[in-house]
Each structure stands twice: as C-alpha cells, then as structure tokens.
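Example 3.2
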Amino acid sequence: MFRRSRLLVVLVATAGLAASTAAPAGAAPARHGGGLFPTTIQLPNGFQPEGIAIGPGPVAYFGSLADGSIYRVSLRTGEGKVIGEAPGTPSVGMKTDRRGRLFVAGGPAGDARVVDTRTGAVLARYQFATGDTFVNDVVLAYGAAWFTDSRNPVLYKLPLGRHGALPSQAQVQRVAYRGELVYQPGFNVNGISRSPDRQGLIVVQSNTASFYRVDPLTGDTRKVNLGAESVPNGDGLLLIGRDLYVVQNQLNTVAKIRLDRAGTTGVVVTRFTDRRFDVPTTVAAFRDRLYLPNARFGTEPTPATEYTAVAIPRF
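Structure, written as tokens:
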C-alpha cells in the first residue's frame, strides 16, 4: 500500500496493458448498497480507504488513511458502519483471524494494533519503530502476525501463543532481511503473503517491481524469477493455492502470477482491469469474487470525496 505523499499520477502506455483482461461488457453494473452481494460498495465520504480484510463470513473491514477508522460492511447488502474509535493515525494493511480479531498496520505511526471485530475495541497495541517508518501490510502465518515496513529492511513478528494468545510488547521480534533483497531509495517492501509450500513468505518490493521469497526464521531472501516479466506498482498480495494476485495500484490492474510450490519462480498468467478501478490498493476474496478498495490517490481528499470498493470475478 502506497503512502499518499509519495504517489504520483502516471500515464500508462497502452502497450503495458496489452495483456490485461478488461471487465466484460455484460458485467453487473455498479451498485451502491442494497441488493444481494452488490458489486460496488459505497464507503463513507472522505474515508480514504487503503486496507481490506474479509471474514469470518461475508463481512469486510476497511481501514482509513485519514484517521484510522475501521468500517465494517456486510458483503450481502453493502451496508456498513464504523466500529470503535479512530486512533487518529492511519490504518493500512489488515487481516482477520478466526477468533474475530483484526490485525492492523499503522503506517507512519510505526505501530500495529489488534481490534475486536465485534466491538471495535483495541485488544492490544504494539510499537515497532519511530521516525522514518511505514508499517504497511500484514499476513497471519506460522503462528504469528508478520508486518512489513516500507522504509526499513525488517519484518516485525508478533508471535501468537497457545489458543492465539497475543504477545506482550517485549515479545515483539524483528527479522532483518538478508540475501538478495536490498532496500533502495523510496518505497520498498509493501504487500506480503505466505508461500505456496507454507514454509516461507512472499513480499513485493514496490520501487523495483520485484518479488522475494523470505525465510521467516532467518530473514534470508531470494528473488522470485518471473523471467522477462515484472509487476510495476505492486501493492497488496493475495495467495490462493499457487496463484498470487498482485494489485498494481496506479495501473488500475490486478496481475495473476502462477508460482511454483516453493514460491521461487512464477509466470504472469494474465492481468485484469475494470472501468470502476480508481487506484485500488489491495485485495481480499470471498467465494468467487475478489474485493478491492479504491484509494483514489491523485484525487484531492476532502470530507465530501466519494470512495468505493468494487467486486470482480475471481479470474
């Protein structure tokens, strides 16, 4: 997920999207709430969405860059409400677990918090870094919550105890990257997912359009070989089986990469775009659909600015 101050609106050459799959002409029209499983969900005006998490069940959670509010939405109806109190700092990448908890990355605040999805109450808060930091995205894997930092070459690990018990601040771990992943000037590691073999992690380095497999025990990294392909403006990641969905935010595109079992090589199978995309940042799945929030980077945010999330067929 990209920090707003670092985003520029870019013009994309049509050749760069030649492999994209446009939304079919007969696709369901945009709908703002109402009906059964609407394909466009209206978010509050001025919300500035960034992250999304789905589940358990047909419920989505969106985080606000403006004040960190969490907006809970029924995917059945498109209706929603803000839960809990806004922290006043951004909510960026998010994931839910089966215990009804939402793990939220805090962006430039350098922190993370765990929220009760029923009440919005903050169950725990963790400070990872101060100063030049951007805690960006999170994945739940291997008995822990793993957070990326786009400004610092490190993963933050929240080890979960028996029955998912949350750790103390003193138990927070830092796993420094080693090997082939080297941070460059600008905005670095962004989205994160498991590897298909359930032994490693996959991260995307936005400013180099590269992917890396990370050993969660040692921090050793190896570049994922995509052949002649690259995925510029890579943002949120979603792994389903061996298919890695990658949101290319400023390109208004989602790429689908078929990985090998280890997650060390991959092939860009196809790309998908949709006329309703307006700088989507990340993606989550429910049944046969993918859901993406439109961050609208490049559009001046005001209290009246409209924001949406859109559903597309899983491809």
